[in-house]
Amino acid sequence: MSAVNQLSYADAAVRAVAHEMETDPRVVVLGEDVGRGGIFGQYKGLQPRFGTNRIIDTPISEAAIMGAGVGMALAGLKPVVEMRVVDFALCGMDELVNQAAKNRFMFGGQGRVPLVARMPGGIWDASAAQHSQSLEAWFAHLPGVVVVCPSTPQDNFSLLRAAIACEDPVVYIEHKALWGTTGPVDESLAVPLGCAARLRTGDALTMVSWSRQVQVCAAACETLAAEGIAVDLIDLRTLWPWDREAVLDSCGRTGRLLVVHEAVQAAGFGAEVAATAAEATGCRIARLGAPRIPVGYAPVLEAQSRVTAEAIAEAARRLAG
Predict the structure, then answer these.
(1) Which distant-in-sequence residues (6+ apart) come within 8 Å of 81 by Cβ?
(2) Does the first or last residue of the chain, that is N or C, have fewer Cβ atoms within 10 Å of its Cβ?
(3) What's the predicted TM-score (pTM) here?
């Protein structure tokens, strides 16, 4: 039997990267502060272990970091490109959008870009509008990339390994507020990209979410269960490709779908899930996301951008009623 350890979200990521570096000499890491372990400890201890030629500290230039990563991938390496936070990754968008995402298509498969761009996203407590964005829908809209949003230490271990093994560019969005959370991690457990997780089973409605918002949804589901409302809770885990089969099967059974995400509701990825479910099953639909406002610095303003368990429970009651 494999050992199951209690690990933090950050330590699970460290182990995932270390495992892939040990088994594949092509895997390298590059970015700002990776040598000292990264700002969230997601590379802790890796540079002393693998050396400065594989854990590579870079200048403060996201465009240069992403561009170097694309070049490394085209030359045969498998770079893990650290962007620190998704907000900073915007400085490297041209290299990702116009080079990494399109190379395989434009050159008829002669070039591949097996790159993992780690871009921690979501609301970062008291960090204000330029450090608290949820931009996963931008990347899900981009042909040529895979988009992953792990919500647990187990998924951060297993999905990061799957992302590094992938032969296409992967936008890997860990949540800024999850690094210190802990949970069981079975290092023998493989989780394929594009496979959702069903966390609760119920017939009243289907609830779909991802990343940190899954935990908020789970709290709302506990409240609803005490009221006799049993929810089918699904964590997408991967936004592209997303697990249509799991979602549509659930919606076809419950006849109701509530999609919840931390990102701004307008044009969020929840709209894609909702429209697909409506077209395929005709189920009743509701969406719940943040208002279209910048995330404030003051706690009272920041709270306006959060989708709370109370709001989720109320939306579920209305939908199930």
Answers:
(1) 30, 31, 65, 66, 69, 115, 116, 117, 118
(2) N
(3) 0.96
Domain boundaries defined on the chain? 4-186, 197-320
Both tokens assigned to 190: 């493989």
**Which CATH number does the domain 197-320 belong to among 3.40.50.920, 3.30.43.10, 2.40.100.10, 3.30.70.100?**
3.40.50.920
Q: Strand, helix or coil at 290?
A: strand
Confirm if 238 and 195 have CB atoms less than 8 A apart: yes
Residue type, 83: M
What does the pLDDT average to over 97-102?
A: 97
- Write the DSSP string, 124-153: -TT--GGG----HHHHHTSTT-EEE---SH
143 phi/psi in degrees, rounded to 5 = -60, 140
Fold of 4-186: Rossmann fold (3.40.50)
Confidence (pLDDT) at 321: 86
Q: Which of 19, 131, 141, 175 is catalytic?
A: 131
**What gap in Å lies between CA 229 and CA 282, rounded to an integer?**
21
Decide: 146 and 286 in contact? Cβ < 8 Å: no
Q: What is the share, in percent, of the chain residues with pLDDT greater than 70?
A: 99
Cis peptide, bond prior to residue 169, ω within 30 of zero = no
Does residue 194 sit in helix, strand or coil? coil
Between vectors from CA 295 to CA 289 and to CA 299, what angle results, nearest 5°?
105
Cα separation values, 140 from 252, 263, 266, 270, Å: 24, 13, 15, 11
Give the Cα separation of 301 and 303 in Å (integer): 5
Tell me, yes or no, if 131 is annotated catalytic. yes
| 197-320 matches 4-186 in CATH topology | yes
Instruction: Write out the two tokens for 118.
Output: 């780690």
Pairwise CA distance, residues 261 & 244, whole Å: 17
**Which amino acid makes up residue 232?**
D
Helix (H, G, I), strand (E, B) or coil at 275: helix
